[in-house]
Design brief:
two-stranded antiparallel sheet; alpha/beta; Rossmann fold; globular
Length: 367
């Protein structure tokens, strides 16, 4: 009798599951693929990318942080930037393995500045003509340290995704710090935090269980994605009145997110350097520049008060606008020479604060 009752309950469920699977298969076979990244971009308040799945070179959807780098990308061209990623979806020229004994690992957490926007620079009509030795500041810092400490096992990783705010960066570091096991964490954010949106990141990308679960389920089903698009795009769909645009991350939350990343790094035995946000001038976008100045000043004061090592490179701030043009590709992102300068300043900061002490000794000595 009990077996019969169980069968009576399970059979309708199995039929229902088979029906759903059949609908999902039919949608996938008959309708154009709707990229989950387009769904998350729409939630975020940006227009969908619309690039076909087989032509999207660099990004994919993520139910927690809305977008991430695709793994195993081989020399894709994204916005005049040649990009390759490893199996972990990180812009690194080799797989990142469990840290072996003796390796000194620096992790640079950040946005498109740390990622290296337009580094190397390439033009789509000449995809093979670019400087293969060019690299963002993380790669350049690795070269500098290997030159200074020959024979030592040194690795510098750019844990960076274009468009990320401190809200997303904090989440990314929380998810990866256990297996990365960094000796030093470098933190640099700013431009995306001050960017204006109708809703802040912590609301749009709520990390609570139910919103995250709903986004995960919805983005994994082509049936649900097409249904959601039809429902929201229908002519009689109600239009939501959105608040006035405000920064994606408030000034207080910006400071707290970076302080939380620094605390997390220290709890895992890593030293920390917070790098002040880079920005070229006050004239290209005066209101944005004013926000950058406010955020940077608040961050510097908070880091100094909390005893967290802070590096501000004055040449990469609005105050140096008359002389810093060669350090920038445009008003937000450093040029190749700018990345080299950041790497050198970071090396000097690490050395001055004793963070390179584990590299001194053995067969190597600082130059």
């Amino acid at each position: 009798m009990r077996t019969t009752r169980r069968a009576g309950v399970l059979l309708p469920l199995l039929v229902f599951a088979a029906l759903l699977a059949g609908i999902e298969l039919g949608v996938r076979l008959t309708l154009p693929h709707y990229a989950s990244r387009d769904f998350f971009l729409t939630l975020f308040g940006d227009p969908p990318d619309g690039t076909p799945k087989d032509q999207q070179p660099l990004f994919e959807g993520d139910p927690v942080r809305f977008w991430r780098l695709r793994p195993n990308v081989e020399r894709a061209i994204w916005d005049f930037t040649v990009v390759s990623t490893n199996a972990q979806g990180i812009r690194h020229d080799r797989p990142i393995e469990d840290k072996p004994a003796g390796r000194f690992r620096i992790v640079c957490v950040g946005d498109s500045v740390t990622f290296g926007y337009r580094i190397p620079l390439v033009f789509p009509d000449r995809p093979d003509e670019y400087d293969r030795n060019d690299a963002p500041f993380a790669g350049r810092l690795e070269r500098l340290l290997r030159e200074q400490f020959p024979g030592r096992d040194i690795e510098v990783i750019a844990l960076a995704v274009p468009g990320y705010s401190t809200f997303q960066g904090r989440s990314l570091l929380e998810d990866t710090i256990d297996w990365l096991e960094p000796d030093v964490v470098v933190i640099c954010f700013g431009f995306n935090d001050v960017a204006l949106k109708h809703l802040p990141d912590h609301v749009v990308m709520s990390p609570d269980f139910f919103p995250t679960a709903a986004r995960t389920v919805l983005s994994s089903s082509q049936t649900l994605l097409h249904a959601w698009r039809w429902w929201t795009d229908r002519p009689d769909a109600p239009r939501v009145r959105l608040p006035q645009p405000a920064p994606r991350v408030s000034r207080d939350d910006y400071v707290e997110n970076i302080a939380a990343m620094a605390t997390l790094a220290k709890e895992h035995g890593a030293a920390v350097v917070v790098l002040g946000a880079v920005y070229r001038d006050r004239t290209t976008n005066p209101k944005e520049a004013a926000r950058m100045t406010q955020y940077r000043n608040d961050l510097r004061a908070a880091m100094q008060e909390r005893g967290i090592p802070y590096l501000q490179i004055d040449a990469f701030t609005e105050d140096a606008a008359d002389s810093n043009g060669s350090l920038f590709g445009e008003h937000v992102h450093p040029s190749s020479s700018g990345h080299q300068a950041i790497a050198e300043h970071l090396r000097d900061k690490l050395r001055a604060d004793g963070m390179l002490a584990p590299l001194v000794g053995g067969d190597a000595a600082p130059s």
